[in-house]
Write a structure and sequence with these properties.
By secondary structure, the protein is of the alpha+beta class. It is 34% helix and 35% strand. A 12-stranded antiparallel beta barrel has the order 1-2-3-4-5-6-7-8-9-10-11-12.
Length: 233
């Protein structure tokens, strides 16, 4: 959103410049409206930095499972990851390049989603990549401690879209996991075969705390839930 506001400011200023060069006309109202965009960007920047500090200061209250505090998307700053009241790692979204950052922030908040997730001694990187142009499916490589361990892809078709169903399929080692959620709800479920092995949802309806419950501290299931949350929610 911040990049979008600055882009709109540049576009309006270009229009104003062309009006001046072609018609020798200056529109004070147009110029006044143009400067509302950088003011809005500054306000948004200040708010985002405030949200960032709140995320960093998050300490769980009455959350027994895994949790993190999610208020902002624009800055690739680590968000602490807790199990109960014990900090166990962090997670953050990142872009592979500045070009992807600019395009992703301008067009859609779920473009080029890549994740870095640290849990105890394991560092997971979920790297977005393009398999082919003009595909509705998104693809990721999953790397653990520098070693490629699997892939993931969205499952997008008209039937799922009609049912407002969000699905990502993961192939990690010899396992196949699926995360699924309804578009209008915040609860995400991860399954292995027919068995549900974890969920991620808001701790309360109006809370920005995301709470996870996973079986046997399954780190790969946690990675799957977190990617689904950041891509779709």
């Amino acid at each position: 959103m911040l990049i979008q506001l600055l882009f709109y400011f540049v576009m309006v200023m270009i229009v104003a410049l062309f009006r001046y060069l072609l018609f020798d006309a200056v529109d004070p109202e147009l110029l006044g409206a143009a400067f509302l965009f950088p003011v809005g960007a500054l306000v948004l920047y200040v708010l985002t930095k405030h949200f960032q500090k709140k995320e960093q200061a998050y300490v769980p209250k009455d959350v027994k499972g895994w949790s993190f505090y999610h208020l902002q998307r624009s800055f690739a700053v680590p968000k602490p990851l807790f199990e109960g009241d014990q900090k166990r790692g962090y997670l953050k979204r990142y872009y592979e390049s500045k070009g992807r950052f600019i395009i992703g922030e301008m067009v859609s908040s779920n473009w080029y989603v890549s994740m870095e997730i640290k849990v105890d001694g394991d560092l997971y990187q979920v790297k977005w990549y393009r398999e082919r142009w003009f595909s509705r499916q998104e693809h990721w490589e999953i790397v653990r401690n520098g070693e490629l361990i699997g892939q993931a892809r969205t499952l997008v078709d008209l039937r799922r879209i009609a049912k407002l169903k969000e699905v990502i399929e993961f192939h990690i080692g010899n396992r196949t996991l699926q995360t699924a959620a309804n578009t209008v709800t915040s609860t995400i479920t991860v399954t292995s075969g027919e068995a549900a092995i974890g969920t991620l949802k808001r701790n309360h309806i109006v809370s920005n705390v995301s709470a996870m419950e996973v079986r046997k501290r399954d780190h790969e299931a946690m990675v799957a839930l977190i990617l689904h949350h950041f891509y779709f929610k």
